[in-house]
Specification:
- The structure holds two protein chains of two kinds.
- By secondary structure, chain A is of the alpha+beta class.
- Chain A has one domain (12-93): Phenylacetic acid degradation B (Ubiquitin-like (UB roll)), CATH 3.10.20.520.
- In chain A, 26% of the residues lie in helices and 20% in strands.
- Chain A has a three-stranded antiparallel β-sheet with strand order 2-1-3, with helices on one face.
- Chain A is flat, with a radius of gyration of 21 Å.
- Chain B is mainly α.
- Chain B has one domain (3-204, 220-236): Ferritin, core subunit, four-helix bundle (Ferritin, Up-down Bundle), CATH 1.20.1260.10.
- Chain B has helices spanning 3-28, 37-65, 71-76, 87-90, 96-118, 123-151, 155-168, 186-199, 221-236.
- In chain B, helix 5 (96-118) packs antiparallel against helix 6 and helix 5 (96-118) crosses helix 7.
- Chain B is globular and about 55 Å long.
- Classes of the chains: A alpha+beta, B mainly alpha.
- The A-B interface holds A 2, 18, 39-42, 45-46, 49-50, 53-54, 57 and B 36-38, 41-42, 45, 142, 145, 149, 155-156.
């Protein structure tokens, strides 16, 4: 039996060898991929298969994207006011001055 | 269809159903106990696929037999001597590598078999085979990739993968029983196995005398314990439903 690493070393190795991946699922052709959750996996192929096993069990989708979580850059919650408040009172940016024809759902 | 043909079909469907049922039951033992969440779901999904196939095959067998037995009756009320699964599927799970070894050897064989069955003249059989072949293609791929990851991984994973394959290897010959026309698949199966093992940097296990008997109801000790767990509820409360 090989020497077992100390438990914190093992956890560190696990984190390094099994990074987190974010999973996006496209429900059907023409729609966009929606974030479904995350999986741990050691490589891209394993991440795709894990995502398939975990997030498309019930025919949720026809396409998967997996992205290492470390590649995702998120906006800083502290900057929410600076980034998003100015858009609140700019009515002229909204396309409200024409009617959308009936039956056009996914524009 | 002559009586003899019906009888052969009944036993064929029974063998196919029992293989899937026993392996499905084995995989269900991992549920909640796998090394990680994603693997837990993967193994449980594979188990469910197999139990689904077993339901179809055993229902077909019951239909052909014509004595009112459905899949549930066949699954839960037969004893060890009446089961026709191969010895490979009743082997214990052991560690993850042992489970992967069993799946790797079995699913590659099952995939080749199902592709043939999907083209069978008997339509009831071929319908099941066609659906099963798609599911099994994924099982074989999944298992093969893990053989490579474990075999070509750390010292420990490699040792465990070798031990797992070593355990399962003597149950391979029984898969290629002449009765099911399976020997014709052996060369392709050998090629697939050799290819994956080469990628995993593993050697082919040494040839050894194959253990036989599962197809005649002569099972290892493992099956009795497995059935005791699987059948307890139906035997204690016959006819119980959800």
């Amino acid at each position: 039996m090989t020497n077992k690493a100390s438990s914190s070393e093992a956890v560190g190795q696990t984190k390094a060898n099994w990074p987190l991946w974010e999973v996006f699922v496209r429900a059907k052709n023409g729609l966009s991929h929606k974030h479904a959750g995350s999986v741990h996996a050691a490589d891209a192929r394993m991440a795709i298969e894990a995502a398939r096993d975990v997030y498309t069990r019930r025919m949720e989708g026809v396409s998967l994207w997996v992205v290492p979580s470390s590649a995702i850059v998120a906006s800083d919650p502290k900057e929410t006011a600076d980034l998003f408040a100015p858009a609140e009172d700019k009515v002229y940016r909204h396309p409200t001055f024409y009617t959308i024809p009936e039956g056009v759902k996914n524009i | 269809m002559t009586d003899k043909n019906e009888n052969q079909l009944f036993h064929h469907a029974l063998r196919l159903g029992d293989d899937a049922l026993i392996l499905g039951q084995r995989l269900s033992e991992w549920c909640g106990h796998a090394p990680m969440l994603e693997v837990d779901l993967a193994l449980a999904n594979i188990g469910l696929d197999l139990i689904g196939q077993a339901t179809h095959f055993l229902n077909l067998a019951g239909e052909i037999e014509g004595e009112g037995r459905d899949a549930d009756a066949l699954a839960f009320h037969r004893d060890v001597l009446d089961f026709r699964n191969c010895l490979l599927v009743e082997q214990p799970n052991g560690d993850f590598a042992q489970t992967i070894a069993r799946q790797f050897l079995f699913s590659n064989w099952q995939e080749l078999l199902m592709q043939e069955i999907a083209a069978a003249p008997e339509p009831r059989l071929s319908a099941i085979g066609a659906k099963a072949a798609k599911e099994i293609a994924y099982h074989a791929k999944f298992a093969g990739e893990w053989v490579v990851r474990l075999g070509d991984g750390t010292e420990e994973s490699r040792a465990r993968m070798i031990a797992g394959l070593d355990w399962m290897w003597r149950f391979v010959d029984e898969l290629f029983d002449a009765r099911d026309g399976a020997p014709s698949h052996r060369p392709e199966w050998d090629a697939r196995i050799a290819h994956a093992l080469a990628e995993a940097n593993l050697e082919l296990p040494k040839p050894r005398r194959g253990a036989m008997g599962g197809r005649a109801g002569h099972h290892s000790e493992h099956l009795g314990h497995l059935l005791a767990e699987m059948q307890f509820l139906q035997r204690a409360y016959p006819g119980a439903t959800w």
